[in-house]
Each structure stands twice: as structure tokens, then as C-alpha cells.
Amino acid sequence: MSYLEPLFWLALLKIIWINVLLSGDNAVVIAMACRSLPDRLRRTGMILGAGVAVGMRVVFTAIIAVLLGLPWLRIVGSLALMYIAVDLVLPEEAEDGGVAAHDSLWRAVGTIAVADLVMSLDNVVAIAAVADGNWALIVIGLVISIPMIIAGAALIMGLLSRFPVLVWAGAALLGWVAGEMFMSDVKVLEYLGESVVHNVEYVAAAVGAALVLAIGWTLSRRRSAHSTGSHGS
Hints:
Elements: H1 6-21, H2 24-34, H3 39-67, H4 73-89, H5 97-119, H6 121-131, H7 135-162, H8 165-183, H9 186-192, H10 194-232
Helix pairs in contact: 1-6, 1-7, 2-3, 2-5, 2-7, 2-8, 3-5, 3-6, 3-7, 4-5, 4-8, 4-10, 8-10, 9-10
Organism: Starkeya nomas
Membrane topology: Multi-pass membrane protein
Transmembrane segments: 6-34, 46-66, 135-156, 163-182, 202-220
């Protein structure tokens, strides 16, 4: 498929559209991970995070066909995603001002990278299917998607700043995705059967969201109490 063929541009539009549609969760992660950064570092964090996310999509697409067939992959991924969701709702710990900004920036970028690695399974499968092995399509389509992901993250970040309760809603969304991912693992499908998994998929997703909220709320209270006690002493 050459650049001059209409099918190339049609496939490119499909890849961009798929990436934007399936990157809603990733935009949430970018916004939540960068929300506590100083104003001067937020845009940098968002750009670096989105760039890392898209770059990892390109690499991940090359190995996804092998990885998706491995048992336990989605289970491990779902647990990692739940950890990330809980970590995002915990209050920031006090750090020395001179180091905090730099450390927080790269911590935010790292969080975005790990979350994107976990959450991009379905995304890269769809992109690989459309591209049909054409790496030019994959790279160009994902690079064009960067501004769209950043725009989505910027919008969400503005809402998070005005309505902090949305941070918890975003964490619950990630927990929901983790629950769905857990149930789609090869081993779970083998053990329970496709019909059972299909019937309880939404229940598992709801349980994942509830676990994130419960664990996040408990740890948040403990960290806040510890911080208050430290300041009091």
C-alpha cells in the first residue's frame, strides 16, 4: 500500500480515529498524573506523557500478537492498573521544594507510561489490524494522535482542578477497566468458560472500581492522618 493510494489515507484516518476513541482512559491518566505538578511543568508533563504513550504504542504493537496469547498477562496487567488507580487518588506527600518539581514531573511521566502499557492492549490490536503490517501507517497515525490526546488531557485536567471529586471518578474508571481486563485473561476464560465470563464481566468491572475506591479511601485517610501527626509533632 503506497502513499498515493486512497486506501492508505483511509487506513490512516481509521488508525487516528481508533487511537483517539480508545485513548479516553489514557487522557484521564495523563490528566490525573499531572494534576499536582506546578503550573509551569504541567504542559511539559502532558507532552512528555502523551509522547511516551504514543511511542510505546508503536513498540507494543510489534510484540502484542505474541503477548496476548500468554496466560496471566491480563491478570498481572489488571493488578498493576489497580495499583496505579489507587496511587493517583492518594494525597501528595510533602517533599523538599527544590527537588519535588523535578521528581514529580518524571514520576508523573512514569505513571503515564506504565498505565499506557497496561491499558493499550485492545488499542494496539485494533491499530495493528487496520495497518496490516504497514509501519508507516502505524507511526504516522499515532504521531498525529499526540495533539488530540494532549487536548483531551488538558480538558480533563481543567475539570479535575475545579471538581476534585472527579479524581475519584477517574480512579473508579481505571478500576473498572482493570476488572474487565482481569476477566478477559486466557486462564480466566479457560477456568470459567466464555459464557460465564460474559455474564459476570460487568460485575467484575464494578468490583474493580469498588476496590480501587475502598483501598484508595482507606490509604488516603491513613496518609492524611500520618501527615497531620507529623506536622503536629
